[in-house]
Amino acid sequence: MTLDLFADQPIEITTEPLAEGACVLRQFASAHAQNLLNGIRHITTTAPLRHMKTPGGHSMSVAMSCCGTWGWVTDAQGYRYQAQDPCTAEPWPAMPSDFSELASSAARAAGYTDFAPDSCLINCYEPGAKMGLHQDKNEKDLSQPIVSVSLGLPQVFQFGGLSRNERPSNIPLGHGDVVVWGGASRLSYHGVLPLKAGTHPLTGVCRYNLTFRCTR
Ligand code: MD3
Ligand code: FE
């Protein structure tokens, strides 16, 4: 499907269906990439990227930070959203309005109206960093989608089914690609393969992924 979102600034958006409720908006964030990266740099000055520990005691290969009212954390106590950054004991940095506006317009393009995220998780992958297959189920309202924005180096995303034993398909995600996951895909198993080494003009040796969520 193609649609023109803004009459004054006609850009063609192609939504590429992935599965029931999920679609890829290739390059949707490209024009906003530098702003998003400036925002990430600002946020991570206050709430540094860190390798959190899983409840099992393993250090995650992905470095993470958050902005918005609620931040996702993991430690020996488990996975949860909390209002304070455990590194600083301060509230997470506010979500910049251009972040939430981009997420809400991507959700709208995918057919989800009134998406108002209260949390943005910032994932930073360096060569070899990966995320095993998992479900995102710490959010209370599963009728709301999750919006993900990829920046920098490409990485292969794995998209599985509602049970862990379904074989996932591989979807390459590049700089500026946005994916909206909701409806029947909201609880799909997913992960990312290890990042291959490379250099991107805007992010250097890493890939950033922003995931926008409604946690309440
Ligand atoms: C499919 N992040 O932070 S984003 C995560 O590239 C996470 O950093 C990956 O999985 C990354 O939890 C993938 C794409 C994504 C996010 C949420 C989903 C795919 C999803 C929720 C349900 C189904
Ligand atoms: Fe996830």
Automatic annotation (TrEMBL):
The keyword Iron applies. Residues 116-216 form the Fe2OG dioxygenase domain. Gene3D superfamilies: Alpha-ketoglutarate-dependent dioxygenase AlkB-like (2.60.120.590). Fe cation binds at residues 134, 136, 190. One of its GO terms (molecular function) is oxidative RNA demethylase activity. Keywords: Dioxygenase, Iron, Metal-binding, Oxidoreductase. This is DNA oxidative demethylase AlkB. One of its GO terms (biological process) is oxidative RNA demethylation. It comes from Marinobacter antarcticus. It comes from the Bacteria. The gene is alkB. PANTHER family: ALKYLATED DNA REPAIR PROTEIN ALKB-RELATED (PTHR16557), NUCLEIC ACID DIOXYGENASE ALKBH1 (PTHR16557:SF2). Binds 1 Fe(2+) ion per subunit. Its cofactor is Fe(2+). Pfam families: 2OG-FeII_Oxy_2. GO terms for cellular component: cytoplasm.
